[in-house]
Design a protein that fits this description.
single chain; alpha/beta; 190 residues; binds BIS(adenosine)-5'-pentaphosphate; 8 helices; Rossmann fold; 5-stranded parallel sheet
């Protein structure tokens, strides 16, 4: 099994690149943002609770997200591996993921961290907001999401650096160029 975390701030291209990586390497995509948006659109109790945080650009509480991941792993016992997109987003989530995967004897193999300047992140998300219909793609909420990233999510990079699993990738350029850099790192470790 090969497990990879695609890490980076809002708008760094995690969703875009996950789609390419899944096709090429046949991994199962686990995007907590997509799972949460699905819950919101179906107006489930979890979705209604999560929406309050998402609309303000804040992270949903750890216990909610960790429970979702645990179910997702259990639903897919026989797979090549997982690509985690938008998770873990706090050190507590990273520790919980390690515990879940250790229990299955399939640890995280690599964490690919996309590096993109703040100016580029904002410009990408504002343009996406014109067509996405996402309630968090507006200037105010984008600023809050980036602030939340610096406060709570960027320490996750140090967590994986300490475990010698973090590889930084330039996240600016064409989608194909970035995909080529990501693929080279994955292929060399698979
Ligand atoms: P989530 O859905 O995970 O959003 P995010 O991390 O803010 O990331 P985005 O989906 O906005 O960006 P991305 O990095 O995937 O970039 P994309 O490929 O789309 O989370 C949303 C919310 O859910 C959170 O705020 C939180 O409330 C909650 N949540 C989710 N996970 C959670 C967790 N683990 N814990 C707690 N709460 C959680 O690209 C962005 C745009 O740029 C697109 O338009 C794309 O076409 C464009 N683009 C991509 N690559 C390029 C390129 N190379 N050049 C030019 N444009 C590009």
């Amino acid at each position: 099994m090969f497990n990879l975390v695609l890490f980076g701030p809002p708008g760094s291209g995690k969703g875009t690149q996950s789609a390419n990586i899944i096709d090429k390497f046949k991994l199962v995509h686990v995007s907590t943002g997509d799972i949460l948006r699905n819950e919101v659109s179906h107006e489930t109790p979890l979705g209604l609770e999560a929406k309050k945080y998402m609309d303000q650009g804040m992270l949903v509480p750890d216990e909610v997200v960790i429970g979702m991941i645990s179910s997702k792993l259990d639903e897919n016992p026989e797979v090549n591996g997982f690509i985690f997109d938008g998770f873990p987003r706090t050190v507590a989530q990273a520790e919980a993921l390690d515990n879940l995967l250790d229990f299955k004897n399939n640890p995280i193999n690599i964490v690919l961290s996309l590096l993109v300047t703040e100016e580029e992140l904002k410009s990408r998300l504002i343009s996406r907001g014109a067509s996405s219909g996402r309630s968090d793609d507006n200037e105010d909420v984008i600023t809050k999401r980036i602030k939340e990233y610096h406060a709570k999510t960027s320490p996750v990079a140090d967590y994986y650096k300490g475990k010698e699993k973090l590889v930084e990738i330039k996240g600016e350029g064409t989608v194909d160029e970035i995909f080529a850099s990501l693929s080279a790192e994955i292929s060399s470790r698979m």
